[in-house]
Amino acid sequence: MISFSFNNYLIAYTSSQLDSLSSKEIIVSKNPFIDNTYSYNGSETPMTLEDYQTISNIEGVESINWRFDLTITKNFDVDDIGNENSIDESSVLTGYVNGKMISSFDCEGYSMMFSTYLDDKDYSSYLLESFSDDSNGIYITEELYNNLFTDSDDTSKELEFMLPIPIYNTSGSVEVTIENDDGSTVISANEIKCHYVTVKLPINGVISGTSLGVENSYDGGIYVSQSLLLAYYNDIIDDYPDSRTLYWITSKPYVGSYIDEYPSDYTLTESDYVVKQSKWTTASATALSVEVENHSQLEEVVNKLEELGYNVENEYLDTSAYLNIENNTQATFTTISLVIFVVVLALYLYVQYMSYIEEKNTQAFLSSLGIDKSNKSLFFIKKYIINTMIVCLLALIFFFIMTYVLNALSISYIVMTIKAGIGIIGLSLLVELLIPILMKKVMK
């Protein structure tokens, strides 16, 4: 039991140390560019249900969740009739303390991003400071916090900003020209069109790094719960058509924008723009957060994803050396445990041998009193049974005490089960009843 508890402690300790050095989360996307760095701005190719299924079938993958990331900047708001209206306020952030506005910060030109966090995940290890635990609360990075607030006490803090609600994945509106040895290639990048809603939300905490997961190159960011974003999304998404095609015609007399159809007597030219939009859903997110079961499987999962053609963003840390230390430590402890077991076994056999010598003297004494052989055997069997009951009771008490102590110290998590009880009773019978009877017969 002690060896088992130590191994549990060692595994938990190693996992904790690796978690502090490297996240088990990886960002998976289908990047159309040669540079496979994740954009954090929705320019990747949208995922499909087939991608979800393929990734979930990879051994070592523990969970898959959709992502929505967007650069905080002056942007366009898309309405339900196809118009896109410029909104300068989308980059303005306002801080409140105890309901009173204390600062306003326009992050246009700064490296700031918007993202979401999982409602059921514990992020306490990522936090520099924690203020509340509101289900609709947000987390902000230290850089952003320092631009808005001057103190770090636990008073009620809120942030007012324009929350982007993803509406469409758009192709054709953004094109990137890539130069290579064979010339240049024009690639259409995805763009997420959003509707913006002004919200004022409590700040749950300040992130010590730049992210709640895989670190990125942004200076700051805002993290909103996925459930809150989906609540706003579900309230408005039915107002928008599932898909639409936008035409921007540059030739006279038809100059202008058209939705789904353009004048029938006009032929599109290369100077015109055709933009296709399909409704954004969690199944068509442009990236996925994938968490592996443990660090030892991280490299294998990353390699498999890359073999399948996916781009992977993660804080890869070569954990093999650390894991080898863990394995070597476990092997060393197992060896020491075996040596201790052999020593204890030798002492136990010696004690049993001395007990056998003592029983021979007791038998001689009982014979001198005229007690026959059957009664003498009954006497010793009763003695073995009493010893077995005492040892079994003490073992159960010791097991309960050790379980309580180990669980209280978080060294191990052991519960008393029927199998454990049967094991203790069985060992007690073996040590105090069967082995003494067997030794008695062998050494006659």
Query: What is the gyration radius calculated from CA atoms?
Result: 34 Å
Separate helix tally: 8
Distance between the termini: 36 Å
Task: Please report which band the strand proportion falls in: under 5%, 5-15%, 15-25%, 25-35%, 35-45% or over 45%.
Answer: 25-35%
Task: Using the alpha-carbon principal axes, give the shape.
Answer: elongated
Share of residues in helices: 25-40%
- Element order: H for helix, E for strand: HEHEEEEEEEEEHEEEHEEEEHEHHH
Please outline the major beta sheet.
12 strands, mixed
Strand tally, please? 18
| Nearest-integer average pLDDT | 80
What this model shows, in words?
Residues 1-6 have low confidence and may be disordered. 37% of the residues lie in helices and 29% in strands. The longest helix is centred in the C-terminal third of the chain and has 49 residues, at 320-368. Strands 3, 6, 7, 8, 9, 10, 11, 12, 13, 14, 15 and 16 form a 12-stranded mixed beta sheet that branches. The chain has a 4-stranded antiparallel beta sheet with strand order 2-17-1-18, covered by helices on one side. It is built from 8 helices and 18 strands. It is elongated and about 130 Å long. A hairpin with a 5-residue loop joins strand 4 and strand 5 (84-87). It starts with a helix and ends with a helix. It is of the alpha+beta class and 444 residues long. It has helices at residues 2-21, 49-56, 142-148, 226-236, 298-307, 320-368, 373-408, 418-442; strands at 25-29, 61-66, 70-71, 75-78, 84-87, 92-97, 100-106, 112-117, 127-130, 138-141, 157-180, 183-207, 220-225, 243-249, 256-259, 273-279, 287-292, 311-313.
